[in-house]
Design a protein that fits this description.
With 352 residues, this protein is α/β, with parallel strands linked by helices. Helix 9 (237-250) links the parallel strand 6 and strand 7. The longest helix is centred in the first third of the chain and has 15 residues, at 103-117. The chain has helices at 5-18, 31-38, 42-54, 103-117, 131-145, 160-171, 185-193, 210-215, 237-250, 273-276, 308-314, 324-335, 338-351; strands at residues 58-61, 65-68, 154-157, 177-181, 199-202, 220-223, 253-257, 282-287, 299-302. It is elongated and about 90 Å long.
Length: 352
């Protein structure tokens, strides 16, 4: 086994330098004398001195010996000793069991992907996300939601907050953003963190009140049409068309936050603003935090085709924030039908 005693000696000498026991410019004992003092071998002392020289604590002077480096950056400690133990943090992840999620199915999916893809999983993801996941999401939306979205318009991200920020970078920070009042607090937190003060728009029984929307001086409308939090309001079909008419008249954009929509009861979810839009004015955002688990930091954004070039100019140069293994696993989970079976199971449970 390689001798590690020189590391202990190196640390001991360094501590004496830091505590001022060996002062700046002071000559250290010769290697042979240091070996006699400490009981270490000559080679151990040589290795310790070499480390001190490499790190700038000690300066060798030919035919004179070894001296403590003259520097103002070496700290002088008081009698209070530097801590040598860590104060470890207590477990702070949220507690609670997700008894609807089939962990065994997910773990089998992970093993299947690892076996089938192997080293392919170590390739870098495109900035917009892996094609296999974007294809799987597009097929799922068409099959399960009746939403038509080209895979090329789907952008993968690490959750709603990350996607809110991406949408702002695409549309522009110079725009004026309107949000539901009340709304999910993290929406305003993200906007304020980007230096934007969102305009609150009063909510009525089926969405933002007409007068509040028509009189607001805004360029972008951020809404949660299905089951808005914390009001619980779901926008009616006429209200959704009202939002779209506002966007067309204003030449503005709508950020549609479709959180929780997979669990619409009874029947399939009502039409999304994205699927109702003919003018390319809606950016659709959804995540898997509610449908699977908050620990799945994966979501997606669907852009109108006319914003794809803007995406490339702004955030398209950054790396995708979701690991490749997780993307491939989720793609297989969706394509195999496991995701839809999971959703149906939860919906049946919620309807009881």
């Amino acid at each position: 086994m390689k001798d590690k005693k020189y590391i202990a000696l190196y640390k001991a000498i360094k501590n004496k330098i830091n505590h001022g026991e060996y002062k700046s410019g002071e000559k250290l004992p010769s290697k042979r004398i240091m070996a006699n003092i400490t009981g270490y071998s000559l080679i151990t002392v040589e290795n310790a001195y070499k480390m001190l020289i490499d790190e700038g604590y000690v300066k060798p002077v030919e035919k004179s010996g070894y001296f403590v480096a003259e520097t103002h950056y070496i700290p002088t400690y008081t009698k209070a000793e530097q801590k040598s133990s860590l104060s470890l943090l207590s477990e702070d992840c949220e507690k609670g069991e997700n008894d609807s999620f089939e962990y065994s199915v997910w773990s089998k999916t992970v093993r299947k992907v690892l076996s089938a893809k192997g080293r392919e999983l170590f390739n870098r993801s495109p900035s917009e996300g892996c094609a296999v996941l974007r294809n799987a999401i597009a097929e799922y939306l068409l099959r399960y939601r009746g939403m038509y979205a080209e895979p090329s318009c789907i952008i993968i991200g690490s959750g709603a907050e990350s996607l809110y920020e991406s949408a702002v970078k695409i549309i522009g920070r110079d725009k004026i953003y309107g949000v539901e009042n009340p709304c999910y607090s993290q929406i305003t937190t993200v906007y304020e963190g980007l230096g934007i003060t969102p305009v609150p728009l009063k909510m009525g029984h089926d969405g933002i009140e007409k007068d509040a929307l028509s009189s607001a001086d805004i360029d972008v409308l951020h809404v949660t049409p299905f089951h808005s939090y914390p009001s619980g309001v779901t926008a009616s079909a006429p209200k959704r068309y009202e939002y779209l008419a506002w966007a067309e008249k204003r030449q503005g954009y709508i950020i549609e936050d479709d959180f929780d929509s997979e669990f619409f009861i009874p029947g399939n979810p009502i039409d999304s603003l994205y699927s109702m839009d003919n003018g390319g004015r809606v950016i659709y955002i959804n995540t898997f935090s509610k449908s699977l688990s908050p620990s799945f930091r994966m979501g997606y954004m669907i852009l109108p085709e006319k914003l794809l070039s803007r995406y490339g100019e702004t955030i398209g140069k950054y790396s995708c924030t979701v690991p490749v293994l997780e993307q491939y696993t989720l793609a297989e989970f969706i394509s195999s039908g496991s995701f839809e079976r999971h959703l149906n199971k939860v919906r049946r449970k919620n309807s009881k």
